[in-house]
Structures are given as structure tokens and as C-alpha cells.
Amino acid sequence: MLQTLQDKFYENFIDGKRWEYILDGLGVTLEVTFFAVIIGIVLGFLIAIVRSTYDKTGKLKILNVLCKVYLTVIRGTPVVVQLLIIYFVIFGSSDISKVLVAIMAFGLNSGAYVAEIFRSGIMSVDNGQFEAGRSLGFNYVQTMIHIIMPQAFKNVLPALGNEFIVLLKETSVSGYIALQDLTKGGDIIRSRTYDAFMPLIGIALVYLVMVMIFTKLVNMLERRLRNSDH
Amino acid sequence: MITDGQVLIKVEDLYKVYNNRLHALDGVSEEIRKGEVVVIVGPSGSGKSTFLRSLNLLEMPTKGHVYFEGVDITSKETDIDLHRRKMGMVFQHFNLFPHKTILENITLAPIKLLKKSKEEAQENAMELLKLVGLEEKANTYPSRLSGGQKQRIAIIRSLAMDPEVMLFDEPTSALDPEMVGEVLELMKKLAHDGMTMVVVTHEMGFAKEVASRVIFMDEGKIKEQGTPEEFFDNPKDPRLKEFLSKIL
Known about the structure:
Oligomer: heterodimer
Strand content of chain A: under 5%
CATH topology of chain B: Rossmann fold
Number of strands of chain B: 10
Helix content of chain A: over 70%
Order of helices and strands of chain B: EEEHEEHEHHHEHEHEEHH
CATH class of chain B: Alpha Beta
């Protein structure tokens, strides 16, 4: 039993340097996730600002409508379909890097969810905080930056951490555009060795470990922020 | 420069209508002179808080004008943020910034808006903290403070901007009874030092003792006003008589 497992392990990961599929795939997965997260945060932040500014002051009406359309479309369609549309329709005739397409697709997708997370965070800050800032003479933007955002960010950190974990796992559909990410890497091994157990359990473990590390990091950050005001 | 006795805030025919129906303010005109302590009383829903909040435009009036130091701040051309710096406001629920220390709460606006150096702002803040006897709380966060302490910090946070007038919106209503005294003490001190104050409150003792003028509001209108003596000893408006008989 142990001997077979050892043999299988050798066959799936060591023989023919197959572990490189896993390692390279992990690199791609992390690269896509990292840049998609950045796009998601920036985009989500900007949209949240537009949306809550409209909610609070009634300004930015047209931008708010655009944001709402974006949110509806992105949240109303599957991420795989969005990925396929961006790759085969929008960039169908151009020779663009698959990694770049994946980054764009997952970034655009994540932005919609992050926007609503940020917006709920901004709205969760008591309006008295806003009034206190304004009555001291801060303008709308300054009040947002110095008073509302720091509190909103702390309120949404757990939800934000969760969104990134979801994003990391979602990139596993990158194989649909033949991008060799972690999942695709494991799948390639499976197609070579005709063994499903080892490569699939292997990549599952890699995802699990990454998610656990990230959860730990978010918890640490959360604890540090909490310490700062009680 | 406006000197004692001159008009600091002038309110002209102010209306505030919610949902086209409820008249929170129904044609209010009033003048606040420099050095005055004006106390506004009235039943809940009388529009007294709306009136106070209109003075620095936290509440945007539907119609009418507010002049501060002779400038029409209700005009669209006016940069209200510049004028708000000179109008301190104290809220019922304190609204200290929970993510900042007491010292940071006090120095934030002077540093960012008045462009004071950090050292200067902190020095000034420590002096104000000494004034209220809370200098040892400088580096703690608001959540560690009692309600009375929070409100005193909120008051000196406004004072740090060196305002021309202080607006108080029911500053003691959210406090436990044993903490009301310390806040009123501080407000009395301010009044004696000549600060112009507009105070919405239910503390009739404070009104009698400190106010230069008491205003009674009801149904969005100013129904009666006068010195504390004539106001409390010889009320004329029937609604005021009824109001006073209930609370005194």
C-alpha cells in the first residue's frame, strides 16, 4: 500500500520533472490573483466612492448609473463566461497574453464584489462621524479620507479577506482559455499518467495551504487594527 | 472683525420642509449677537435642532438665508467649509473619532485645515485638555472614556479650531445623570469667558443661570423669547406655559 503510494507519487510528480507543472502553475495562479486583487481593490474602491457619494449627496448621477450597470452585468453572469468573452470576443482577433486576459477578467469581476463590500463599509460608519467631520470644516473628500475610510476599511476587512480567498480559488477556471495555472497543471499531469488521485489531491492541498496562510494573515491584520482602538 | 454686541449670525425667513409636508422650520428669523448665550427650548419635534443645524448648514434649509459674519452662507458661491471652521458644533452623541486617540481627535482639524505644525497643535491641545482636567487621557482612545469625558473632549475638539461661536445640540441628553454636571460646568466656564453660544437643551437650570436669552420654539416657529427672568417667571404664549408647567 505504502509502496504503491510512493510509486504513484514518483510517477506523478518526480518522473519527467512533472512537479514543474505544479510549480509553474502555482506561479501563474499567484500572479493572476495578485494583480487581479489590485485591480479589484482600485476599481471597487472607486465605484464604492461614486456610489456612496451619490447616496449621501445626490451628486455623480451619471457615473452612478454606469457603476450600477457594471455591477449588475458582472454579478449577474458567471466569471467563466466573462473570461471567455474577454478572451474570445473582445481580444478574439488580437494576440494578447493569456495571463493578461485572466488578470483583467478576474480583476473586473472582483471589482464588482469589492465595490459592494466597500460601500457597505462606508454606509456602516455612523452618520454622526460624517457630520462631526463636516462641522469641523473638512470638505466631503477630506472627511472621507481622514474619518470615514479608516473606519470603513476596518469594518470590511474580514469580508475583503474572504473575497480574496474566493478570487484565488476562482482563478482555477483559467484553464478554459488554456492558461496553465495550478489547476490546469494538475490536470495535465493527470492526462499524462492516467492517475487522477495524486495530481488532483496534490493541487487541492496547495490551494488549501495558500488559503490557510492568507486567512492567517488577514486575522493578524484584523487583530492589529482592533488593538488600535480599544 | 465683529465685536461684542454686534450681529454674528443672522437668520432670515428660514424654512425647512421634509417630503413637501412636514414643516420643521416655518419661517424663522433671528439674530445671534457676539457674546450672547442663546438657549433654545421646546418640545421634541418643535424644530429646535433643525434650526441649530441650519446655522452651519448641516441641515440645508429649503428656503431663506443664513448670514455668518455678514456673509450669506446659504449662497451657492460661498465655500461653507471655510465658515464651518469658525462655528464649533457639539453633538448629542459626541461623535468622537473612534479610530483616533484623544490627542489626535483634537489636533486633526487644526493640523489639516489651519495648517498648524504638529507641535503647535499638540501644545494647544494639551492646554485644552488641562482646562478640562483630562490631560492624562491624551493618548487613549475614545472607547476608554465615560460619556461625560467624551463630551468634554468633543467640546474642546471644537474649541481647538478657535471658533467664533459654539453650537450645542442637546449636549447632555445622552449622558447618565451623574455626568451632566461636569459638561454643564464646562459650558458655563465657556459662557463666562465670553464665548458666543447657541444651545439646544432641556436643562432649564442651565438656561436660567447662564442664558442671556431664552427662545421657545414650537411647530417650527419661534413662539416666544426673552431674558431668563421674563421667560420663566412671566411666560405669555399658552404653549410655553403648558411646556413649562410640564417640565418645571
